[in-house]
Write a structure and sequence with these properties.
Number of domains: 2
Shape: globular
CATH class of the largest domain: Alpha Beta
Oligomer: single chain
Strand content: 15-25%
Structural class: alpha+beta
Strand order of the largest sheet: 1-2-3-7
CATH superfamily of the largest domain: NE0471-like N-terminal domain
Largest sheet: 4 strands, antiparallel
Distance between the termini: 39 Å
Length: 158
C-alpha cells in the first residue's frame, strides 16, 4: 500500500521526520543509505540536506538525489501516531478505492462530475467533502458509503 507523506522536518545530522496521512510520524536517518547509494553522501552537506522538498511519493534534493517516502515508512522508526482528522480518513478511503479500481484522478473526475483538483485535495485531506460529495464519489467508484461512529476506549484510572 502507498503511504502518502504530508509533512517533512529536517532534524539533526541526516535525520528526517515525516508525517503520513494515516497519522504515523516516522524518523529516518538518510545516512543508512550511504553504503548502498554513495551519491547520497552529498547530503552530509547541511545546506543541501535542508533544501530537500517533499512530494507525496518522496523527498527530492536534485536530479540525482531522492528518497521514496515508502522507504521512510517501512524502514523508519515510528515516533508517534497522531490523531487523524475525518478529512484525512475520508481522503485515504477515496484514494484507496480509486487505486483498487485502477482509476486516475482524471478518470474519477469524469465519472463523478467532480473537479480533478477537488479530488486531489480530498485525497490529501485538504478539503472537507460534504456527505453529498462523498456519495457521488462512492457511486462513481462503484462502492458503498459507510459512516460509522465508534466508542472510544477510556483508560481506567488505577
Amino acid at each position: 500500500m502507498f503511504h502518502r507523506a504530508t509533512e517533512l522536518t529536517f532534524l539533526d545530522g541526516t535525520i528526517v521526520e515525516v508525517s503520513f496521512q494515516n497519522g504515523a510520524v516516522k524518523r529516518y536517518d538518510v545516512a543508512a543509505m550511504f553504503r548502498t547509494h554513495p551519491q547520497m553522501e552529498a547530503l552530509r552537506d547541511r545546506k543541501l540536506f535542508c533544501a530537500g522538498r517533499l512530494f507525496s511519493y518522496g523527498i527530492i534534493w536534485n536530479d540525482e538525489l531522492d528518497l521514496e517516502t515508502e522507504t521512510i515508512y517501512q524502514e523508519g522508526v515510528t515516533v508517534r501516531e497522531e490523531r487523524r482528522s475525518a478529512c484525512a480518513d475520508a481522503g485515504e478511503a477515496v484514494l484507496a478505492a480509486r487505486a483498487r479500481r485502477g482509476l486516475s484522478q482524471k478518470q474519477l473526475a469524469q465519472r463523478s462530475g467532480i473537479d480533478q483538483g477537488d479530488i486531489s485535495r480530498i485525497e490529501r485531506g485538504k478539503l472537507n467533502p460534504s456527505l453529498e460529495l462523498l456519495q457521488r464519489l462512492a457511486e462513481a467508484l462503484e462502492t458503498d458509503l459507510v459512516i460509522e461512529l465508534k466508542d472510544r476506549e477510556i483508560p481506567k484510572e488505577p
